[in-house]
Structures are given as C-alpha cells and as structure tokens.
Amino acid sequence: MTTPDATTSDDAPVFRLAFVPGVTPGKWVRIWEQRRPDVPLELVALDVADCAEAIGQGRVQMAITRLPDALGHGDAGAHHSIDLYEETTVVVVPKDHVLTAGDEMTLADLADEQLLWPLDEPLTVPQPPGSAVSHRPESTGDAIELVAAGIGVLLVPQSLARLHHRKDLVHRPVTDAPTSTVGLLWPQPTSDLADEFIGIVRGRKTTSSRGRSDEAPKRSAREKAAAKRAAREAAGKIPGKSARRSGRSKRR
User: Which InterPro entries match (predicted)?
Assistant: First the structure.
C-alpha cells in the first residue's frame, strides 16, 4: 500500500521536499528533474524544529533534516527515516580567539568558555562543556552574530559554520564532540515518489528502480543460452549455420 502523492491545484502531481539550513540537495534535485520531468519537485526551506510537524501534517512529502533532533520537535506521526551521512562538529570563535592556535581541539578545551545554545538546536550535546550563556538566541544565525560580538562561542555542524561564514570568525573541529546526522524523514506508508527520491539519494540507477511497471521481464535459462550463443556467433567465436553454408559453397 502506498500513500497518495501531493497534487497541485490542477491535480498534477508534485513532490514537496523540505530541507534544513546547511543541507545542499542540488545534485539530487537535478537528477530528479532529469528522471521525472513530469513531476515538479518543490523545495521547502524549514528549520530542524519544524520538520516533524510538516511531515505529520502532510505539508511536505519528505524532509532532508538532522536526525534524531528533528523528531524531538512536533509529531511526525507514523514515519520512516534513514541516515545519510555524519557531519563534523566544529566550534565557531572570533578570529583572534586563543582557541584558534590549534588546528583542532576537544571538548575539554572548551571548559572555560561561555557557550551559546540557539533554540533551533542544530546539535545535541548530552554533557555540554563550559558554561551556558543565559540568553538563548532564536536561531543559529542569531548565535553567530553573538559570537562575533564576543558574547560566547558556538558548537555547530560544520555545514552551518560554512553557511554563516564571516571574515571575523573562524571554526575548528572538535574531535570528541557528538556529531550531527543528516537523513531522510518521510511518512508511512512510503509513496511511489518518495521511493523514487530515496533511490536517487542512494545512487540507484534508472533501470534498477523498484516498482517500475515497464521493467523488462526475466528471461528463461533457454532464452539466456540462445542469446549467449548468438552473441558468440556474431563475435566469430563459434561457427554458425551461415558460416558452414558459406564454407560448403567455397568447396564446390
């Protein structure tokens, strides 16, 4: 059983894909446009905290988000999820900060620091280092502004540090910090379009897509043997009937 895919106002199918800051779905979108020009893919930018609710309410058919963080906000209802890749965790600090002396660090190196923890929670750290700044900024972008103002430092996935890059800030990897997992989140049961996008993300070729009604039927053992013999005859590896006939005509 599959769920119906989203439709536009004129009942043409459309696939709505949510993505969170720092995620770059461009490659997968381009492949979708090549394979399914008949189904527009609509990108919806969401914060991690809004993804579960968007899935549960059917406002999007799939989300590329951070897991399991996204599931800690709102109700996704019956759903599936798969992990795609791990992101390196970095600390964002002012360019002249003492922590910039090293190429990488550990959580222990942050013991004396004031840390900012934005409300959009791009990273979950069970045992946070240092001391928490009492004010919690609304978003990672707001937290970056506070780092630049010297209010504190910030632990985030590396993609977000790059997204909010500033010339007066730098970031360094924190080798023992928890990592962030980027993954796919979608409702149960899996729709045909959702399955198609999963195949694209996993590198599934067009000919190997599941559920295709135009998939070529499997050949019997006799058909496979006949095809193999025909291929060898065409390559001249074994004499075919035409070769034997031409041989007899030459002896006459």
Answer: LysR_subst-bd
